[in-house]
Amino acid sequence: MNLTKLRKHFWLPLIALVLSFLIAVPTSKAQAAEKTYVIGTDQTFKPFEIQDKDGTYNGKNPGIDMDILKAIAKHEGFKYDLKIMSFNADVQALQSGQLDGMIAGMSVTSERKKTIDFSQTYYTDGVAMAVAQNSKITKLSDLKGKTVNVKTGTMGATYAESIKKKYGFKLKYYTSSNTSWADVKAGNADAAFDQAASLKYGIANGIGLKIVGKQVANAPLAFAVKKGKNQTLLKKFNHGLTWLKKTGRLQKIIDKYTSSKAVKSQVVTDTSILGLIKSNASALGQGLWMTIELAIVGIIFALIFGIILGIMGIAEHKFWHGVANVIIYIFRGIPMMVLAFFIYIGMPTIIGHKLPLFTAGILTLMLDEGAYIGAIVRGGFESVDVGQWEAARSLGLPYYKALWKVVAPQGFKLMIPSLVNQFIITLKDTSILSAIGVMDLTQTGSTLIAQNFQGFKMWLIIAVMYLIIITILTWISNYIQKKMQH
């Protein structure tokens, strides 16, 4: 195989990846023609967002925000796609242009108005403090030396930050209200600040906490768009909201979730491990399939990218050595979660297009895991006895032909154990993508816990599922390894 063929062999898959990425990214013109807006919302934040057991908002009682959005979209004649992430990730995605709008029990503040345009107010809420049922804390002064939980980016967090020095408590940050509350119930924290309506709804559904003190920091809640952008969507929302208010439909929606006869969360009658598996089999299956799909596609592209980096790392020209070393250094040095947020939330501001969530996940895996595979491939080639190189070159073989015909077959045998280990790591690393809203097995677990409050049992089920698929992958990899070594 000559140099030209070798280059085609390795660069064509990368070109195909780029082309598929560009095809997958919808253009703004196409979106405008279809009148479909990308709306960001929170993971379960009751009573504003209530996911069903499949992790969607397609259920009968999806929450205040979802009922409002659905009613307005129908009245105003526009379509929308929901992007479900943590509240803080939603805000960042909105500001980067990845989202057209956001509705997530968002309080209107002067600070947020600097970068966000808000709709008319549809609800007014405040901040409340919740403690465990047996807690002796009754007022703010009792928090001295204590640990208080807040949800990142929310009014509860802002309020707690403003008084923590005065009352002498420490803060812990969470991306999910349910995790924050569960931590207080478990005794790992002493109190939690969160939006009052959400806490009241959670307490009515058995989260095991109680509210103490007065509701504070009351603020209006509204729909949001990036400042100066998507003004047509904002006008449609305001027009539809005015209609909801005049017809009394808005109050009916609010009463549905906040009155004494408010709807309750999904009740799980059988909370045994087998019962939880049976009642959530469909959601767990979907989450498992997404994890496997991410792992397989991510491994394929990471392997292609890694082999390219590995070959560049031992190329004849030192320039390619330097390029490979820099790429490997960068992507091995950036934490995978940071890389995922940069690609999904930061990159759209650079390329001028929104990134599909699955594409962002695959790109993250390709760059992060590919950098490690590149180092493995380079090390494998360099581990081949130098005499093999010399013998091949003495026979008149060009550098790249000697690499492909003589060194590569031996090098790949040496690197198989490390590659197998990296493949397993890649599968486990897919769980990190739940941070940007990928509905994998980990994100599915978080959603189900928000419904049934069975944290220990659900995480045990998820852990066993990961262990099973990793064990199967290990068996397959070991079988392939033995076949290649014989």
Q: Find the CATH topology of the largest domain.
A: MetI-like fold
Distance between the termini: 25 Å
Which regions contain 5 or more consecutive residues with pLDDT less than 50? 1-33
- Shape type: elongated
Calculate the mean pLDDT score and round it. Answer: 84
Our count of domains comes out at 3
Organism: Lactobacillus equicursoris DSM 19284 = JCM 14600 = CIP 110162
GO molecular function: ligand-gated monoatomic ion channel activity
Family: Belongs to the binding-protein-dependent transport system permease family.
GO biological process, one term: amino acid transport
SSE layout:
Elements: H1 3-24, H2 28-34, E1 36-42, H3 64-76, E2 79-85, H4 87-96, E3 101-102, E4 116-132, E5 147-151, H5 155-167, E6 170-174, H6 177-185, E7 191-195, H7 196-204, E8 209-226, H8 231-247, H9 249-258, H10 273-279, H11 281-313, H12 318-333, H13 336-351, H14 357-383, H15 386-394, H16 399-429, H17 441-452, H18 455-485
Parallel strand pairs: 1-2, 1-3, 5-6, 5-7
Antiparallel strand pairs: 4-7, 4-8
Helix pairs in contact: 1-11, 3-8, 4-13, 11-12, 11-14, 11-16, 11-17, 12-14, 13-14, 14-16, 15-16, 16-18, 17-18
Family: Belongs to the binding-protein-dependent transport system permease family.
GO molecular function, one term: ligand-gated monoatomic ion channel activity
Membrane topology: Multi-pass membrane protein
